[in-house]
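This section describes the prediction task in plain terms. A model, or a person checking by hand, is given the sequence of a single protein chain and must write out its three-dimensional structure as a string of tokens. No templates, partner chains or ligands are provided. The sample shown here is typical of the held-out split.
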Amino acid sequence: MAKRADIGSKRLISLAPNAWVQWVTGNSQVRASQLLDAEFQWISRESDVIVKASSPEHSEFLILNELQLRYDQNMPKRMRNYVALAEEKYNLSAYPVLINILPPPATVTIEDCYDSEFMGLKARQDYRVINLWEVDAELVLGQPLPPLFPFVPILKGGGSESKLRSAVQALRADQTLNQLEPLLAFFASFVLEIPLIQQIMRWDMTVLRESPWYQEILQEGLAQGIEQGIQQGVAQGIEQGIEQGIEQGIEQGIQQERRGSLERILKLRFSEIPVEISIKIQALTLEQLEELMATALTVNSLDEFTQHLPN
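The expected answer:
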């Protein structure tokens, strides 16, 4: 079953596939014909979307779209593997594109190729990199590029009340785009004050939680956390009873997932978080963690969040 983030990425591209493929390739003659399966035997990632496309110059080919909330330093090798598997599966040449949604820390360099040498043998894979914070919001709204409307607040020149109102108006003008309002609210919360977003969009926490990217943040560590928690709980349950151990393991797993999710939200909104805050998060109860999840999404600064932490 596809993960929510995968559904979100495919949904975005499927809204205007021709506009999307022309934008990522920079070629107005490219046309999209089909969204293909992006799952492979050894690799399955929620952010991959493959589009079969064509142009007068290149005939049929693949456009490999990798959407990332933040750049991962392992991405060059992943893109190399992604291209090789896609070309083998579909027997077509591939044009790989990496779309980074939020900027990484200043110490991270975003690479646009995989380049290695081992025992005199070289391997190289180029791919196009598009950083959304470098994309002009006015261009997106003017062309228009509907799949990028939800990202307007984090685009270049898009972090203003007027641009948010323009994006909301564009979404509400087309019934097929209404479903993207939660995602627009989510990214608006990174750059604008929450009361202003609520005023413009009649937005609340329930709407934000419907965003597939919000769900990705929450669910990313859930399976691993619960599995580890069950293992720990069962080990202790040998003495106290298997049933009690499993229950304890599930609770520990959920608590671990909540800690990880809270830290990911803070990092997405405010980049790196101080060690002392991370230590305090590790000591929070499940109830405290759940209360602070909403707080992390609504405060306007890391200092403001710190004020809500228990002493």
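For orientation: The longest strand covers residues 59-70.
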